[in-house]
Specification:
259 residues, alpha/beta, 6-stranded mixed sheet, 4-stranded mixed sheet, binds 4-(N,N-dimethylamino)cinnamoyl-COA
Length: 259
């Protein structure tokens, strides 16, 4: 898989979009490799946290491949958008949290890829934007949906209608990213967070992700009902018994079994 690399460090799977010569733009071949890698990670229940980043120090993902996209007709555009959306939805629904380590340009499909992740950490040189309307199209990989859900309707509409890029500090101010760090600290920061999450009970983390994501699609009563279900299911796990025993017996160093 040359366009997308997969590396495992402990319980953390690191996915790297690897097309630095084109600033990691998402050509169909890259999307195909990403789809395969996402399937591999989904099948690997020993992965407790996934990280997505871009190769090189300049770009996370500079968007869909404009050169490839420019001659598409309506049917081909529909197919391309649906394919990308299917992969991004699979990332959003992965059994574990996904952290985007945004190491540079996150434009168009790149910004959208980061939005399909649970958490975004950016380096100081990161640039976010939805430049599509300047190319004569709308965002096509979920940007019209997830950006508004993440930063609110006003900022999402401003970014999409103006097609103007924003720097990392502005992305932090509007809640698009959780944290901004110097470039050399990006991966250490992301891996520290990932390993911190991985120390907790993986099934409880997964159930929390499910409750938050599913609940956001529902009204408050439906959301609370989702939480009740996801919470109760944890009591069917060894890790719940173990975690609470550790509290009662004042055991500080825990090792959950993912069971
Ligand atoms: N596609 C293809 N190649 C790209 C690319 C892209 N998005 N971005 C960069 N590259 C390539 C450049 O062509 C160049 O290749 P060579 O000429 O060296 O062969 C190489 O990467 C380096 O780029 P630059 O020379 O331009 O580097 P600079 O530092 O000068 O500029 C830049 C960096 C990121 C500001 C600039 O490259 C740029 O503006 N890139 C385009 C960014 C962009 O507009 N991204 C959004 C793409 S649109 C849909 C489905 C999906 C989508 C929409 C609709 N449906 C089907 C409905 C998604 C749309 C998008 O993502």
């Amino acid at each position: 898989m040359e366009n997308v690399l997969l590396e495992k460090q402990g319980h953390v799977s690191i996915i790297t979009i690897n097309r630095p010569k084109a600033l990691n733009a998402l050509a169909t071949e890259v999307l195909k490799d990403l789809e395969a890698v996402v399937k591999t990670v989904e099948a690997d229940k020993d992965t407790y946290v996934a990280v997505i980043t871009g190769a090189g120090d300049k770009s996370f993902v500079a968007g869909a491949d404009i050169v490839e996209m420019k001659d598409k007709d309506v049917a081909q555009a529909k197919e391309y958008s649906a394919y990308g959306n299917q992969i991004f939805r699979a990332i959003e629904q992965l059994h574990c949290p996904v952290i985007a380590a945004v190491n540079g340009f996150a434009l168009g499909g790149g910004c959208e890829l980061s939005l399909s992740c649970d958490i975004r950490i950016a380096s100081e040189n990161a640039v976010f934007g939805q430049p599509e309307v300047g190319l004569g199209i709308t965002p096509g990989f979920g940007g019209t949906q997830r950006l508004a859900r993440t930063v609110g309707v006003g900022f999402a509409k401003e970014m999409i209608y103006t097609a103007r890029n924003i720097k990392a500090d502005k992305a932090l101010a509007i809640g698009l990213v959780n944290k901004v760090v110097p470039q050399e600290e990006l991966m250490p920061t992301v891996l520290k967070m990932a390993n911190g999450i991985a120390k907790n009970a993986p099934i409880a983390v997964a159930q929390s992700k499910k409750a938050i994501n599913n609940g956001l699609q529902l009204d408050i009563d439906g959301g609370v009902a989702e939480e009740v279900k996801d919470f109760a299911e944890c009591f069917n796990t060894e890790d719940q018994k173990y975690g609470m025993e550790c509290f009662v017996n004042r055991v500080k160093e825990k090792e959950f079994k993912n069971k």
